[in-house]
Design goal:
271 residues; alpha/beta; Rossmann fold; 2 domains; 6-stranded mixed β-sheet; 4-stranded antiparallel β-sheet; binds adenosine-5'-triphosphate; nucleotide-binding; ABC transporter ATP-binding protein; ATP-binding; transport
Length: 271
């Protein structure tokens, strides 16, 4: 197992945002985390990427305990993430954004940079090569010199993936990658996620769009009110009465995205 999560909990005051959640992320697979609004998905993401410290439980990555490690150490260990709202340097070009991700792994010191030592020049060239390769891989090479704030939303999302890949992660966690993009763009994003896995990077994602999840995920963790209510293959999860109940419950409270999810779970759809 690439990542093992055991008994993970996080309370905010008296609220159990995540309670006693255990699951694994298997190497080379796509693991999805789903659940109604407020189920604890983002909190769980923040716990396994070191943005929150858990109240209880453990996170193991490549057989090493990384529980409570701060975000930068988790990233150094090989876990990268994107955010629900894309976080790019808005006034920099798309290429400069991805270069920043390459720099995170650079061994050059400030002295190397100031004196432009051979090591620095070598690393600079390698970073630029890597940036161009990642821009091509994510399908946005033509936007490399555009200012991040000016490019379409889909391009920004792809740039965020390129930036995360620039840190050379073994596990890439995507927080709602398909939020705010069209159905066509979502389908294309699904293809990109498959290519990321083919590249040797394991993927975890939080997502509301059931069409994407059901066609993409190898295993799905379902949360409701902070607790794990199901964990299995898409087939197992879509027919689980507790999952249907959780989604119907949320739907009856007027959550449109969950209602979409139920619609999209009808047989014959998905893969
Ligand atoms: N920093 C925080 N302080 C206090 N409560 C929080 C905090 N973050 C999350 N919560 C609460 O924890 C619960 C789980 O929230 P979380 O954002 O993890 O759910 P989610 O499944 O990601 O929801 P959504 O699908 O709406 O993004 C919610 O009740 C939320 O209000």
């Amino acid at each position: 197992m690439l990542m093992q999560v055991r008994g993970l909990s996080k309370t905010f005051g008296g609220l159990h945002a995540v309670e006693d959640v255990s699951f694994d992320i298997a190497e080379g697979e796509i693991t999805a985390i789903i659940g109604p609004n407020g189920a604890g998905k983002s909190t769980l993401f923040n716990l396994i990427t070191g943005f929150y410290r858990p109240t209880a439980g453990s996170v193991t990555f490549k057989a090493k305990d990384i529980t409570g490690h701060p975000a930068h150490r988790t990233a150094q260990a090989g876990v990268a993430r994107t955010f629900q709202t894309t976080k790019l340097f808005e006034h920099s070009s798309i290429a400069e954004n991805v270069l920043a991700g390459c720099a995170a792994g650079s061994r050059s010191t400030l002295i190397d940079a100031v004196f432009r030592t051979p090591r620095h020049r070598r690393e600079e060239k390698a970073s630029m090569d890597k940036t161009l390769e990642l821009l091509e891989f994510t399908g946005i090479l033509e936007f490399k010199d555009e200012i991040a704030a000016n490019v379409p939303h889909e391009v920004q999302k792809r740039a965020a993936v390129a930036l995360a890949l620039a840190t050379e992660p073994e596990l890439l966690l995507l927080d709602e990658p398909a939020a705010g993009i069209t159905e066509d763009e979502t389908a294309r994003f699904g293809q990109l996620i498959r290519q990321i896995v083919a590249r040797g990077v394991t993927v975890g994602l939080v997502e509301h769009k059931m069409s994407l999840i059901m066609s993409l995920a190898d295993s799905i963790l379902v949360l409701d009110q902070g607790r794990r209510i199901a964990w299995g293959t898409p087939e197992e999860v879509r027919s689980d009465p507790r999952v249907i109940e959780a989604y119907l419950g949320a739907g009856s409270q007027g959550s449109t995205s969950q209602e979409d999810g139920i619609q999209e779970r009808t047989p014959g759809q998905g893969a």
